[in-house]
Amino acid sequence: MPLPTLLRRLMALAVAIAAVLPSFAAEVPAEQTAPWTPLPECAGFPLGASYDFQGLSGTYAARNMREPGQAIQLSLLVTRADQVPRVDGQFIGSFATAAGPVWRAGTFSGLPSNPASGDGFLLFFTGSDTPQYTYGVAGVIKQPASGLIMAMCLYPLTGPWPPSGRPFPVWRVL
Known about the structure:
By secondary structure, the protein is mainly beta. It has a single domain (3-19, 40-172), classed as Lipocalin (Beta Barrel). The chain has one helix at 3-20, and strands spanning 58-62, 71-81, 87-95, 102-111, 120-125, 133-142, 149-156, 168-172. The chain has an eight-stranded antiparallel barrel. The longest helix is centred in the first third of the chain and has 18 residues, at 3-20. It is globular and about 40 Å long. The protein starts with a helix and ends with a strand. The model is unreliable at 13-37 (pLDDT under 50).
């Protein structure tokens, strides 16, 4: 079976399974949480900590967040991880708009945090050289034993700095 067909089938399966899961919550080890955070939407995330995107592939969903520009559900498949911590891959997901949720598919690129530039970024492309959705990544929660990213605190980067959109967490569901 050609790789694009297999990829589409796997992404469709991931979306279908995530839709029937009873809960969006993931077990988060207590030692991974920060004692205080200025962002109530991302309470428990280690904000300001350095992270990488190893363990990013998976399906993530937001809970109770439906402001325009926010990701509702994302299935990410990392297809390339450079020697530097940049990752590239394929995505399919739904995003909130003023008219209701829309489904998009395409490629994504991610650059994790570092002390020189601060928070990392996720850029989502849907057929052009300009990203359709751009998010800052304020923090991630990783499962210590497996290294999988269990949750990310994202904020939309749609205008001038500072960002006007509120941060929102997305949790691994698959």
